[in-house]
Structures are given as C-alpha cells and as structure tokens.
Design a protein that fits this description.
Layout lengths: L19 H13 L12 E5 L2 E4 L4 E4 L2 H4 L8 H13 L11 H13 L6 E6 L2 H16 L3 E5 L8 H6 L17 E4 L13 H20 L5 E6 L2 E2 L5 E2 L2 H14 L2 E5 L23 E4 L10 E6 L18 H34 L1 H4 L3 E7 L2 E6 L10 H13 L2 E2 L1 E3 L3 E4 L7 H21 L1
Parallel strand pairs: 3-15, 5-6, 5-7, 7-10, 10-11
Antiparallel strand pairs: 1-2, 2-3, 4-12, 8-9, 11-12, 13-14, 14-17, 16-17
Helix pairs in contact: 3-9, 4-9, 7-8, 9-12, 11-12
The structure holds pyridoxal-5'-phosphate.
Pyridoxal-5'-phosphate binds next to helix 5.
Length: 450
C-alpha cells in the first residue's frame, strides 16, 4: 500500500490480526530479540503519518499511544522529516562532547526561552529519558555535594541503574538487579482518588508532605544530606496521575527550606503534552532541573537535562556521552518546537479538554471506570472491578486494550489498571471521538462480562 494512501480518517482493519506478514515478524522477534520487552499486542508497524500507523499487512490504526508519548507532532511530520533529511546530508555526527557545532547552542537557547525556570539555563545532552535522569542525579549530587535523593512510589524514571534506583513502578523492573544506587528514599505520591477513607483531598496532600518532613527527615535522611527531590508532575507509567498543584508548591517550599534541588521529570509530561510546555507550569512552580526526552524530537533519540545555569557547575570530564546532542536529533527537536509552538500545544489543550468533557461522564455511567484524570493529551482512565472497593482490574484493563487493538485503536496501559490516552498532539477532535467511541465500546464489552 502506497504511503500517500494513508488517510487520517478512522482505522481500517483489512486482515485478521496479526496478519500473515506480521506473523513472520513476530516469529523472527521471538527468535532474535531480547525477551525483556513488554508488548501488549502484536502491532508490527511499517509506516506512520500523523495519527495513523500502517502495519506490514496494510492495516491502518489510529495511534493513541504516540509510540509511548513520543511522536508529539505525529508520525513523520513533513517539517520534522525535512529537517532530518537536510541535516543528515550535511553532518550526521561529530560528538559535541569533544567538538563544537552550532545547533547544540541554538536548541539550548530555545529551550531556555520556554523553560519553566526563570533566569539563565544550561543544557546537558544525552540520548534518552533515562540518560537525562541519570545526568540529573549526578548533577544534583555534584552541585550540592550531598548524596540523598527522594523519589516517589509509582515513579518511573528509567531503567539504567541510577534511574532505576528512583523508579518504584513495578517490582519486575527491579527484580534480580539489586543492589541499586544507595541513598534513595521513596515516599507516597498523592492520589486523591485512592486517598484513605474519611480524609479530604487537602488532608491527604498534607499527610504526604508530612511524610517527608516528619518521617523521612526525622528518621532516615537528614535534610542537609538530601541533594534532590525527583518528581514527575504527572506520573506516567504510574497511571497518568497528576500531582496536585498544592503538593508541588509544598515540595518547592521544602526544597527552599533545606537547600534541596527540585527536579521535575518531564520526560513524558513535557514538550507540550499537558497543554502547556511543561506540566509543572500548571502549578506555577519553578523546578531547579528538568529532564526532557520523548516528545521533544518527535521520535529521534534525544535527552536533555536542563538546569538553572548556576547549578551546572561540574567541570570537564564530570559527565558526557558520545552521541548526546546528535546534530540530526537536534534539528528534529528544533522542527518539533516550531510545530509545537505554532499549533500543537494549543491543540493539546483544546482536544484534551474535548476528550475530558466526554470522559468525565464515564465515571457515572460506566461501572468499571473508577477515575478519569489528566491534563491536555495526557489522560488516564482507571479501570476497577468495583466502584466501592476500587479493586484494581488489571486483566480487564489489558483485555480492553487488546479489544481496542482488534478494532484498530492503539492504546497502552499505565500503572496497574489504567489506560493512557496519549495521542500525537496534532490529533483532531474527530479522531478523538472515533477513538473514544472504540474505547467506550471495549469497556462496555468487559462490563457485560462482569
Ligand atoms: C517520566 C519518565 N522518565 C524517564 C523515562 C525513561 O525514558 P527512556 O525510556 O527514554 O529511557 C520515562 C519513560 O517512559 C518516563 O516516562
């Protein structure tokens, strides 16, 4: 099927899934590829345009996963493709760690203009989210000369040993990898939907704050030895769960009181996905460091650790990466920023509100929908067995995601029992309606089986 025939209308499923060509790929994968990957269903991608992915058998899917919240401008946005092609013909690599090239500075300056912190910034370039987090851990320790780090239950910061030490999302991610990096304390992330019975949201948030000040700082980690608090302003892998604004403000206060750095991991929530450049901006809180990856370069591998300039005081040799800040990836990021600024961030807010409006009724009308939350195009739908007990419906959630795939809609799970709605930020309201129709149908099928 020719690329040009990919349309942006609804899905078109033409074969049994997986189709014959997809099956051949799956066999090869089973033989040659690391079995550590977690595939939810057998999508074998061949081409992508906008919100549409075509598989090897010519089936067309609406992609509401955006390749795990990465293709912010849609698949193969023409401006991003043109920027990649132009740069690839000129200079593919020269290693910014040992040499110089101009676009490293261009991107840093542009990121500085939209950064959630005021004042001058500096940028460190890596290749992934985990590397951005790894650099933030090392920078926080280097700058503060302290070792301790606070992270949150439910957090996902990546899988390299440092980032994994902050990750507290699923036990399997840590199993047989101990010992991890010492000095990390995990604390509760507020979850207003799952707050203790009889407690108000405000009391629950205050309790999470007290846990840090009255428990952690008084029992296991002296505050003057704490280098940083790492937080996802919207937990991603943890279930698409936004942190209440008041909680983020309290973290800022704690950090200011004790000279601790506040690190916002915006790898998933950043680059416009929440309807603002950065999710932390919804709370009006300025972090000291942010980690950026996924959506910033529309699928080209780029991680950025951005800090207030005075924090990045490490000396030559302290940290670097051969490929970090690859010139082709940087051009992809600059083109991505053009698209985000001209239309996509605004669209994320508008279409996100459109989806939320429709979904907010589901908590009342659907027995298995326990909670709907999120910002912009980062929306979580929590699936429960029972509204009263809020018992998590993990297998049922997985089945809903599979049923949607069979109908040509690509969703991913998040956390134990949530479905993430994370389409490219250029999605239309019409596409969103098609996707929500399918999602509602699939939830309805599971509800009938209850
Ligand atoms: C918030 C957050 N931080 C870090 C990472 C790690 O990014 P990567 O998979 O690019 O290493 C992820 C990946 O899902 C993430 O969601």
């Amino acid at each position: 099927m020719a690329t040009e025939t990919i349309t942006n209308a609804g899905p078109k499923i033409r074969t049994k899934l997986p189709g014959p060509k997809a099956q051949a790929v799956l066999q090869g994968d089973a033989k040659f590829i690391s079995p550590s990957y977690t595939r939810s269903y057998p999508l074998v991608a061949k081409r992508g345009r906008g919100v549409v992915i075509e598989d090897v058998d010519g089936n067309e899917f609406l992609d509401f996963s955006a390749g795990i919240a990465v293709v912010s401008t849609g698949h193969c946005h023409p401006k991003v493709v043109a920027a990649i092609q132009k740069q690839a013909a000129e200079l593919i690599h020269m290693s910014g760690t040992d040499f110089y090239y101009e676009n490293m500075i261009t991107l840093a300056e542009r990121l500085g203009k939209v950064a959630p912190m005021s004042g001058p910034i500096r940028a460190y370039y890596g290749n992934s989210g985990a590397e951005a987090v790894e650099a933030a851990i090392k920078l926080a320790r280097y700058h503060t000369k302290r070792q301790g780090i606070i992270a949150f239950y439910g957090a996902f910061h990546g899988r390299t040993m440092g980032a994994l030490s902050l990750t507290a999302s699923k036990t399997q991610q840590r199993r047989r990898f101990f010992p991890l990096v010492p000095g990390v304390a995990h604390v509760p992330y507020p979850n207003v939907y799952r707050k203790p019975e009889g407690m108000t949201a405000e009391e629950h948030i205050a309790e999470c704050v007290r846990f840090i000040e009255d428990r952690v700082f008084k029992t296991i980690m002296p505050p003057e030895e704490c280098a940083a608090i790492f937080i996802e302003p919207i937990q991603g892998e943890g279930g698409y769960l936004p942190a209440p604004a008041e909680f983020l403000r309290e973290l800022r206060r704690i950090c200011d009181t004790h000279g601790i750095l506040l690190v916002a991991d915006e790898v998933q929530s950043g680059a416009g996905r929440s309807g603002k450049w950065w999710a932390i901006q919804h709370a009006g809180v300025e972090p000291d460091i942010i980690t950026i990856a996924k959506g910033i370069a529309s699928g080209m591998p780029l991680g950025v650790t951005l800090s207030r300039a005075e924090i990045m005081d490490w000396v030559p040799g302290s940290h670097a990466s051969t490929f970090g800040g690859n010139p082709v990836c940087i051009e992809a990021a600059l083109a991505t920023m053009d698209v985000l600024e001209s239309e996509a961030i605004r669209n994320a807010e508008v279409v996100g509100n459109h989806i939320m409006k429709r979904l907010s009724g589901w908590v009342k009308t659907h027995p298995m929908v326990g909670d709907v939350r999120g910002r912009g195009l980062m929306i979580g739908v929590e699936i429960v067995k029972d509204k009263k007990t809020k018992a998590t419906a993990h297998d049922e959630r997985d089945r809903i995601v599979e049923l949607a795939f069979e109908r040509g809609l690509l969703f991913l799970g998040a956390g134990e029992n949530s479905i993430r709605i994370a389409p490219p930020l250029v999605v239309t309201a019409e596409q969103a309606d098609i996707a929500m129709d399918v999602l509602e149908e699939c939830i309805g099928i599971l509800e009938k089986q209850q």
